[in-house]
Design goal:
Elements lengths: L6 H15 L5 H4 L2 H31 L4
Helix pairs in contact: 1-3
């Protein structure tokens, strides 16, 4: 079940926190991280979207009571 965590929201939060807490002159240190964070979030959405149905079907198959 941990596969379906909230990594995207956490990444957005920490990226926004870093951007808000930087002084203008320090902003150039954090800007290279922005495309990387957005790529990680996008790939996470794609991978989780593709894998959600097969993993949940597998989980329900394991939990189905034997008759």
């Amino acid at each position: 079940m941990s596969w379906f965590g909230i990594r995207g929201i956490g990444s957005f939060y920490y990226l926004a926190f870093a951007l808000e807490s930087m002084q203008h002159r320090q902003m150039q240190d954090i800007l290279p991280i922005v495309p990387l964070a957005l790529a990680v979030i996008t790939s996470s959405v794609v991978v989780h979207g593709i894998s959600a149905t097969p993993l949940m079907n597998w989980y329900h198959h394991l939990r189905k009571p034997e008759r």
